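Hi U.,

Before I forget, here's the chain from the pilot set. I'm dumping it here mostly so it's searchable later in email.
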Amino acid sequence: MPLLTNDTLASYADVLVWAVRTSRSVPFKNGELVLLRFDLEAAPLAEAVYAALMDAHLHPLPQALPTGFMQAQHFGNSSFGQLTFAQPGLDDLFRVTAGVITILAPDDLGSLSEVDPYSIAQGEKSEMAAMALLDRRRRAGLLGSTVCLYPTQALAEASGMDLPEYTERLARACLLLAPEPVRQWQRVKQELADIAKWLDGLKIESFRMESANMDLTLSPGAKRRFVGVTGRNIPGFELYLAPDWRTVSGVYYADQPSIRWGRLVSQTRLEFHNGVAVSAQAAQGQSFLSGCLMSDGGARRVGEFSLTDKRISKVERFMAHTLLDENCGGDNGNCHIALGGASAASFAGPSQELTAEREEELGFNVSGMHWDLVNTEKKRVTATLAGGGRRTIYEDGQFLL
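Structure:
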């Protein structure tokens, strides 16, 4: 029996085409190029998306992603020249690309567990110039992109489920089991947009997040807005903003495990002073965590602050991949921060205006890393308002409009 039925695959493909359209500021034109990047195990979904793009009169260009074994060879069994080799022709390809759809289906979550994280970071830098070109096109509104997951045995085992249960939970999380999934995502997009408008209208000067193991404060900073469903990832139930990294202070705690580059990091405790993580502890993965925080100058700073309402999210438990776990609803909803780079989507102005100088002035963090760390404890989030006074905006896993 297939992991996902043909009807579900078709629905998933429709959602992804809707998502890549939604993430682009200008409408697609017939005949524009869409890169279709996929892990090999996701071939059934890739085929469904290919057909949907053809039906949309676009030009899909399929590209298979390297397997876990290939990644381990590239990052762990290469000379410096091989490690930093930049694929020829990427700049030319990215200049004419109108959309990118990426389907992740990891076949081995531990394939990089024995590879030096420094080597991985150096290898990823070789693609940064080409990726920066994509980012410039995205900021100009000329590029749409989305990323999703396809169920695999590796993901199921890492999350403590069998494959059928994992598959069902993933399908539910992506709203594929609901009637008219695209319409459901349009409804979620509007619901989160209404909450974001309410939050932005409060003119919040600072937030305080409190739970059994966390007490963290931060400020949104100037020219910020909350961002909901952008289409850039499916599922996407969170509301997030890029805070002024210089204002982050106190203790943050991630009770949800995180798998990054084949390493499991759990029970992460970070202490911030003047916006910088001065202490970092983890019950598991301590040395890996410390190494990541030294990867560049922005890795010890916060690039994202996010809240997810348990009434909206259909992600109910740990799913062993950040794409799902950062959207966890569960019993208590979640808040999370991301160490590393900030998203330009949170800038309350034309994204083209967010130059490097403007980012520094406004406190948008810059880093090659972006690592979401999730807290699913019962918590309260209190806002200090510009006009004076305080207001609880989030408690028991839900926004308090």
